[in-house]
Design brief:
Bound molecules: ligand FNR
Order of helices and strands: HHEEEEHEHEEHHHEHEHEHEHE
Distance between the termini: 35 Å
Shape: globular
Strand order of the largest sheet: 4-11-10-9-8-7
Number of helices: 11
Radius of gyration: 19 Å
Strand content: 5-15%
């Protein structure tokens, strides 16, 4: 049941599959005879230096994967020297995670990530079938009263209805800005129009995301709309991407199409489920090592060397 909760997507899971498949349609165009004896992967996101352009996406309920939950993930993020975005629906409180390590944390601490694509919960049929019950949300303990671990069917829908205000809209970003000085990143942008609106309301960054295919099914794969968003933003703020990053070559492709960094969702949870903190570290280091090798073999010793001319889309008949 928990595996399905993590792995699954909305309805036909079309977007879930596309997120991965569209990366596979991009073919790399390496340059040879470049000095690649040193590969530099460190980058800076909104003033915070991270060891590689690979961050941890916000995903809920890490304690369903491992008893140490978000605390183990945060320690791995600190060791890897990257940013972990802590989910609002975490199974550990912000305070517990903050106390556990020195990782840069983008959640009411250094920045706020506003998830914009979840006015209501997407229909995840595996959760309904499995009668998936979410445990109490740690950050909302005592504030909402949802029956946890009942046998009446999945509680994910009532949970969401009680927590999320589906009237929240662009106008309300001004309110959010009025109550915090923290930079606000908007997560869930998939179109040029929304990227432009995000710029107008003063977003400090944009995350191109379809929520890992868990919200509206039949939205495009994130990698296929990245360039459109990057062009609309015009380098004014960082553009990040998540969805379907499974290899260092995927990270490279996202950077080639204009992302400043990527976020990783499910692979982190799988690492956590397998081996706790060590498992998350392993996943992050695998991606980084693969990126390093890809940069070397593609003739890109620095992140700035990775350009649009290093990747082309192949038509499906080429595959
Ligand atoms: C998510 N995601 C998510 N996003 C968010 O903004 N807040 C959240 O609480 C969650 N929770 C969540 C739980 C689980 C189990 C998954 C798999 C995903 C979406 C997440 O941040 C990210 O957009 C995707 O996971 C990226 O896709 P990949 O890397 O999983 O393919």
């Amino acid at each position: 049941m928990y595996y399905d909760f993590y792995a699954g997507g909305a309805e036909d899971e079309h977007t879930l599959k596309k997120n991965v498949q569209e990366f596979q349609r991009i073919i790399l165009q390496p340059r040879v005879l470049v000095d690649v004896s040193n590969i530099a992967m460190s980058t800076n996101i909104l003033g915070y230096t991270i060891s590689a352009p690979i961050m941890i996406a916000p995903t809920s309920m890490h304690k369903l994967a491992h008893p140490e939950g978000e605390l183990a993930t945060a320690r791995a993020a600190a060791e890897f020297n990257t940013i972990m975005i802590l989910s609002f629906s975490a199974s550990s409180s912000v305070e517990e995670v903050a106390a556990s390590c020195d990782a840069v944390r983008f959640f009411q601490l250094y920045a706020i990530v506003l998830t914009a694509d979840r006015p209501r919960r997407g229909r995840k049929e595996a959760d309904i079938k499995n009668k998936m019950n979410l445990p109490q949300l740690k950050n909302l303990e005592g504030l909402i009263s949802i029956e946890v671990f009942s046998d009446k069917g999945s509680n994910t829908k009532p949970y969401t209805n009680e927590i999320f205000d589906s009237s929240f809209c662009w106008r309300d970003i001004a309110w959010l800005k009025s109550i915090t000085n923290l930079p606000i990143l908007i997560k869930g942008i998939l179109t040029r129009e929304d990227a432009t609106k995000a710029m107008e309301v003063g977003a400090a960054g944009i995350i191109v995301s379809n929520h890992g295919g868990r919200q509206l099914d039949y939205t495009p794969a994130t990698i296929s709309v990245l360039e459109e968003v990057v062009q609309a933003v015009g380098r004014k703020v960082p553009v990040l991407l998540d969805g379907g990053i499974r290899r260092g070559t995927d990270v490279f492709k996202a950077l080639a199409l204009g992302a400043q960094a990527v976020l990783v969702g499910r692979p982190v949870i799988y690492g956590l489920a397998a081996k706790g903190e060590a498992g998350v570290r392993k996943v992050m280091h695998m991606l980084k090592d693969e990126l390093e090798l890809t940069m070397a073999l593609a003739g890109c010793p620095t992140l700035k060397d990775i350009s649009r001319s290093h990747g082309i889309s192949s038509s499906s008949s080429d595959l």
